[in-house]
Specification:
CATH superfamily of the largest domain: ATP-grasp fold, B domain
CATH class of the largest domain: Alpha Beta
Order of helices and strands: EHEEHEEEEHHHEHHEEHEEEHEHEEHH
Strand content: 25-35%
Strand order of the largest sheet: 6-5-4-3-2-1-7
Number of strands: 16
């Protein structure tokens, strides 16, 4: 494990224990390919579905290269762990060898990676990392909690109900009545997952049981959301720490799919058209951008996030705008909206990655200063 200390050593961490394991691997490949080898030494760290960390020789092959979705397995590389001594910033191999790390870029989607778990571990180890902190990561993973914070910030949130698994098992009639109160069609989602995994469109009462059973495969809470009539799905990328900025607004138009589901996102190359920028009146686009920055602040975001909206009506002049959700580790695949939005805003993919690394170090240095002050106060 030789170290070239003339370069910034970036550990790109991907895979993980969630149902979004494969998408994480694909996103990580795009990030690794975009890093400048003249400035950065990449340390690819794959996490198996069981949670074991491995130092890999390189990124995993894409589906177009291997004919299958990528997966981190135990034979992919040598086992490593994060050093437990605070501030050491090293990965430790099973044989005791150590791999220095300057910054961690978590490209992890879903629970046990995007929800604050890994972020908390990195905080304890004193390692700078890209993206939101523990609180914002946890909130950004929970569609129930984030909606409450959006509403408190004055953002328009569509009608929804939160259903816990025990409520559904113990009082299915009561839950069905709440769903009826929302009105059909509606969407059923796991409260703590992304990439449209477990999302089902419920056209009527007869579809509710199967939809909730699917949601509870992945989470203990489900969210029922009333479908927005004539909805257009638009998204905004946010970048920054204390002074975040918003990208242009983009629109997703599913083709051949009833909504922007998992297949449309990742399996069907023609599953959706991305319109960047979206066909919106300038005043409407600016309003959505302001709302995206407000949503980012509402969860105490840092580094990056993608904020998703629904708008009613067609054409540049739209009706009501609803905040749908925020994603603190948005997809970074070659077809993902987050990098495309920044490219359309004048920030190319490699420069975007560089900016995210700078923001990670900036935030870590600021927090380290506060930690030093706290220690001095208590001594």
């Amino acid at each position: 494990m030789s170290a070239n200390r003339g370069k910034l050593r970036v550990a790109v961490v991907f895979g993980g224990r969630s149902a979004e394991h494969e998408i994480s691997c694909i996103s990580a490949r795009s990030v690794i390919d975009a890093l400048d080898p003249e400035r950065v030494e990449v340390i690819p760290i794959g996490i198996t579905r069981e949670g074991r960390w491995h130092l890999l020789k390189g990124p995993l092959p894409l589906p177009a290269e291997s004919g299958r979705m990528p997966e981190v397995t135990d034979d992919a590389g040598s086992r490593v762990e994060l050093a437990t001594e605070g501030g050491v910033r090293e990965l430790v191999a099973a044989d005791g060898r150590r791999e220095p790390v300057d910054v961690v870029f978590p490209v992890l989607h879903g629970p046990m990676g995007e929800d604050g778990a890994v972020q908390g571990m990195l905080e304890l180890a004193g390692v700078p990392y890209v993206g939101a902190g523990v609180l914002a990561s946890a909130v950004g993973m929970d569609k129930d909690v984030q909606k409450a914070l959006f509403a408190r910030a004055g953002l328009p949130v569509g009608p929804y109900e939160v259903v816990r698994e025990h409520e559904w098992r113990e009082d299915a009639e009561g839950v069905a009545a709440r769903a009826e109160g929302l009105g059909f069609p509606l969407f059923s989602k796991p409260a703590t997952l992304g990439s449209s995994v477990g999302v089902v469109k419920v056209h009527g009462p007869g579809d509710l049981e199967a939809a909730l059973d699917e949601a509870f495969r992945y989470a203990r809470k489900a969210v029922l959301e009333r479908a927005v009539p004539a909805a257009r799905e638009v998204e905004v990328a946010v970048l920054g720490n204390d002074d975040p900025v918003a990208s242009v607004v983009g629109e997703i138009v599913p083709t051949g799919h009833e909504f922007y589901d998992y297949a449309a996102k990742y399996l069907d190359v023609d599953g959706a058209a991305l319109r960047v920028p979206a066909d919106l009146e300038p005043a409407t686009a600016e309003r959505i951008q302001r709302m995206a920055v407000t949503a980012f602040g509402a969860i105490d975001g840092a580094g990056m996030a993608r904020v998703d909206f629904f708008v009613e009506g067609d054409g540049p002049g739209v009706g009501t705008i609803w905040v749908n959700e925020i994603n603190t580790i948005p997809g970074f695949t070659s077809i993902s909206m987050y990098p495309k939005l920044w490219a359309a805003s004048g920030l190319a993919y490699p420069e975007l990655i560089e900016r995210l690394l700078d923001l990670a170090v900036e935030r870590h240095d600021a927090e380290s200063g506060r930690s030093t002050a706290a220690r001095e106060l208590s001594s």
